Amino acid sequence: MMFVYWTPAGVVLSDLTLRVLQREHPKLELLRQFRTIQDARSYCQKMRFHVVQDEQPEWTGITPEGRERMREKKRGSNNPNHGGLSPEHRAAISRNKRMAYRGEFNPMWNRRHKSSTRLKIGMANMRRSRRRWAVDAEGQEHFIAAMTALPPGWAWGRSRHSRGNF
Predict the structure, then answer these.
(1) Which of 94, 102, 127, 131 is most buried by its number of CB atoms within 10 A?
(2) Is residue 118 one of the residues assigned to a domain?
(3) Which domain-ending residue is among 36, 54, 72?
(4) Do the domain assignments include residue 122?
């Protein structure tokens, strides 16, 4: 943690607690605390404080060499997502997503679109070409334009065993 303290002479940035710093600066008052020194410095700059004491080094982030080492450790088979997700993991994600927006958790629960929005949706649907499912002679399903003539051996609709698969 980084602390920003006020003194009559100016502002002190330190990672030391108030009790420790009061020996050095008797009239010390805590202004704010931050997670990083960069956040504390940008706060002081934004508030136009005169910084009297800043004991931290200029950069406390990750060096480019350290970033490269981390990158190399996560490449290839060491990456947690290497090979994709397992079917069980995919099923769990799907189940959780479905449950997240069910019923009263749906953002549109107990709401209606405005009349202007409903009009826009209707106009967009009228511009779309009408499409229907058709099954060819081998049993393959196709989603084709409704105005086209069906080739010989094709039928409108879907086969029973594949409902819900797109």
Answers:
(1) 131
(2) no
(3) 54
(4) no
Q: How far apart are CA 105 and CA 98, in angstroms?
A: 10
Residue range of the domain that includes 140: 131-162
| Helix, strand, coil percentages for the chain (3-state, nearest 5) | 35, 20, 45
The Cα-based distances of 40 to 10, 26, 51, 93, 113 in angstroms read: 14, 22, 11, 39, 45
Where helices occur in the chain by DSSP H, the ranges are: 18-21, 37-47, 64-73, 87-100, 115-127
How many structural domains are present in the chain? 2
Whether residue 31 lies inside any domain: the answer is yes
Six-digit token string for 41:
């410095």
Q: 60 in a domain, yes or no?
A: no
The whole-angstrom separation of Cα 107 and Cα 112 is 11
Rounded mean pLDDT for each run of 10 residues along the chain, 166 residues in total: 87 84 81 88 89 71 85 89 88 91 90 96 91 91 89 88 53
